[in-house]
Queue: 2 jobs
Job 1
Amino acid sequence: MVEMSSARVVVTIPPRHWYGGLDRRAAFAIIQQLQQRFGSIFYQFDTTPFTQGQVDGWFSFITNEPIDVGIAGVKTYTFLLNDFHYPEVGNVFIVNTDTLKTSRDKIEACMVAELMGWRTSIQQPALGAQLSATKYGQGLTTSEQTLESKAQNQLIATGDALTAGLFYVTPAAQDANVKTLALGGTTVTTKQLFDMSVLDDIYKAHPELKIPPTPGS
């Protein structure tokens, strides 16, 4: 970070819902820090300024823009906010408490399907990539989507997920996330924010889903 103190850093501005699990206020608090340290420049998702050497750094999705500039022939070094003590859970599953009580079987069925899908993606990263490029997406290529798939898989099958199961947020990780949210002014307890009981029940009923999947090539 110190070495980047005079760098020109681009901060992309995604729509509100794209912040995943990171509270918007916490996100902007981090962005404000980037402005103060680096004199950030705001763009959307066109990486041309980076590939043309107009800027020195890029604050964005690690599963997307680094791949784009890599395909363009630019070598990069990437790191996560988590690497510098800003852990956050992204792309969370959200239900209200009433639904959790009255439709728990449906929620569990949905989560089992998600787990099975991610396990298949990790084992066969090109499968979903091919479907995205040839069936569901537009203007995509299977090769680029496969690289994105592998990058996403590395974020899913890592750390606590290798022992506690995919999607599982351990008590230590919950505490760390609450501290990150507090940086942006959001005060919440782990009990208010996280409920692992659905996954507990799923992994008890389907222990095979807890076994870490073997990443495919």
Job 2
Amino acid sequence: MSADGSDRWLSHVETTTHLTDTHTRVPVQNIANVNSCPAGGFDGAQPPGRCAPARATATVAAVSPAPLERVTLTGEHVRLEPLLHQHIDALVDAAAERSTYGWTTVPAGRAAMERYVDGLLADHAAARVLPFAQVDRHSGHDGGCTRFLSLQWFAGRVEPDEVEIGGTWLAAAAQRTGINSEAKLLLLGHAFDALGVWRVQICTDSNNTRSRAAIERLGATFEGVLRNHRLRQGDSGNPDGGVHPRHTACYSITAEDWPAVRAGLHGRLAR
């Protein structure tokens, strides 16, 4: 085992199928920025399945963005399972207590949850996201959702070079436990160690002080606020039920940052 326990954590990562060679490169005519979701994609700020058409700034030979491989990531407190229709009923129950969803879009009721899951599965098929259900390993209950989104290809690889972690919500009972920290550890580990990304972005409404504090505790670097960047979410963001722009606080973790961030997360989880 390594000093920071990374070997132990890697041993808990399960995949549904064998991963492809994450570092295989293909011939490139022009380096491209293939952004399947313009304006930074969506972290729940646009409904699943409603992403704008892709806009490519150049052409990558022999590379067509494909859906990320569905994997199961398992830790001590949480198991991140590929989101499926079978999770819908449990997610409806998980979302019943809504007092902490002021800045977050969380479907209320079964019909809304069905549309939400259908949209995310469609977005996965279109190579826009990789959605997960968060399962509390102690209770066995589905505790919420999270996903990779805003997938970016720069270097002609099959795997993306940048991803965003977002669309995250947890049941009230799962909040302020080790589930969120461990889920971030598993997602970051998969992004950097399996997919080989250069950068992971994490965004939130600039007014969401609770979310911003949680992101900063991860060790992510604050990069600034993008004004009128995405749609505001949640009851606090849209008290009148209308459509309003939000100012997005943007944070990132790079491949160079990852060893220190990983060690910090291990330290927090060991307390």
